[in-house]
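Q: I'm building a small set of examples for a reading group on sequence design. Run inverse folding on the following structure and report the sequence directly after it, with nothing in between.
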């Protein structure tokens, strides 16, 4: 028994000392990557996933997809056989090929013309690294003065959620907030020209009014949307649909529904010469005000008329708002139409033409285009002193 124990111990000792630990080079896995890249670029003999498009099937390696795509990682976990078929007819084939090039080779070039389709593919595949890198570059481009172009791009394929003001985009909420914040800066520093304002797409306006940004900035960007609706002479249905998606962070749901209803009833119908805007009122209230572009044939109205007022930062109060009646709206509509038809006459310099400003401000060019003259500065001072 003693001899057996001695032999056994000696054998175990020899087993341990005779082991060989081998460590590969730092580039050990490069040969595997090169093999997969070579197979993908060539005959694809070892590909086991088939991506189906309308007129083509792309073959890829399941291990590579699972390593880079969170979407395919989950799909492949549920696969029971050796091969896997995926229907991707709803995605752009060329965009999928670009994303696969990035997965296999780590480098790809996206063009602005097709970037929206590319973003949809990246979002579907769930490639966080690529998504973050593109969004950072888009925000950087927006900061260089191309904010509207970038917003229009990322909202091209905007999807709305049925029975909800929420929307789905191929970029993150954080990136949307960054872009809308940049738009706010451009507007508040008078860097948003009239032509640039008109170039904002409907989808971008929907995104702007539903974006999650601080209330202090949200008032201004909603005013941008109100001016856009006015300048575009949007029909009632479209204007209503846009404003139905409006959000305000400090409001409860009940307050928000009431606020939307009041704003829509004030804005619609979109009437020439009648400007609606939001204004920060006293005691942190949010006022919906309506101003009129004046001219010599009508009594001047030097102050904006407050239609409705809502408390801000008060989660317990629903607020009390005066919703304009049908008679009031009809009266303002007919009055505004009359003013527009008569605007060909020369306006008198004794009236204040600055009171149709939104938070974005109608410039002197805007007023001239609308047929209104700018009040001389000295006359303005005289009226202010009175």
């Amino acid at each position: 028994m003693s001899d057996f124990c001695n032999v056994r111990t000696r054998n175990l000792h020899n087993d341990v000392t005779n082991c060989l630990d081998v460590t590969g080079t730092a580039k050990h896995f490069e040969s595997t990557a090169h093999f997969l890249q070579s197979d993908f670029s060539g005959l694809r003999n070892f590909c086991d996933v088939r991506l189906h498009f309308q007129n083509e099937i792309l073959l890829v390696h399941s291990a590579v997809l699972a390593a880079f795509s969170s979407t395919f990682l989950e799909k492949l976990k549920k696969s029971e056989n050796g091969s896997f078929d995926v229907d991707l007819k709803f995605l752009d084939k060329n965009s999928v090929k670009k994303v696969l090039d990035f997965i296999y080779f780590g480098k790809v070039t996206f063009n602005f013309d097709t970037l929206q389709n590319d973003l949809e593919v990246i979002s579907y595949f769930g490639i966080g690294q690529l998504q973050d890198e593109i969004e950072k570059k888009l925000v950087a481009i927006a900061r260089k003065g191309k904010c509207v172009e970038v917003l229009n791009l990322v909202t091209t394929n905007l999807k709305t959620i049925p029975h909800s003001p929420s929307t789905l985009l191929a970029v993150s909420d954080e990136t949307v907030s960054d872009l809308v914040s940049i738009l706010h800066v451009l507007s508040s520093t008078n860097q948003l020209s009239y032509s640039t304002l008109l170039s904002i797409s409907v989808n971008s306006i929907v995104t702007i009014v539903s974006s999650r940004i601080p209330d202090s900035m949200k008032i201004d960007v909603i005013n941008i949307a109100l001016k856009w609706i006015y300048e575009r002479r949007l029909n009632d249905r479209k204007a209503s649909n846009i404003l139905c998606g409006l959000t305000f962070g400090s409001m409860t749901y009940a307050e928000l529904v009431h606020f939307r209803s009041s704003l829509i009833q004030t804005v619609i119908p979109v009437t020439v010469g009648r400007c609606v805007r939001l204004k920060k009122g006293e005691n942190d209230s949010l006022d919906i005000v309506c101003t009129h572009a004046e001219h010599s044939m009508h009594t001047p109205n030097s102050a904006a008329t407050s239609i409705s007022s809502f408390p801000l930062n008060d989660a317990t109060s629903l607020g009390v708002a005066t919703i304009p009646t049908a008679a009031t709206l009809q009266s303002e509509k007919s009055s505004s139409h009359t003013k527009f038809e008569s605007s060909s006459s020369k306006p008198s310099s004794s009236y204040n033409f600055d009171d149709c400003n939104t938070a974005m401000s109608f410039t002197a060019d805007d007023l001239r285009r609308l047929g209104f003259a700018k009040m001389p500065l000295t006359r303005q001072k005289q009226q202010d002193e009175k």
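The beta strands are 49-52, 57-60, 84-87, 159-160, 167-168, 274-280, 285-292, 305-311.
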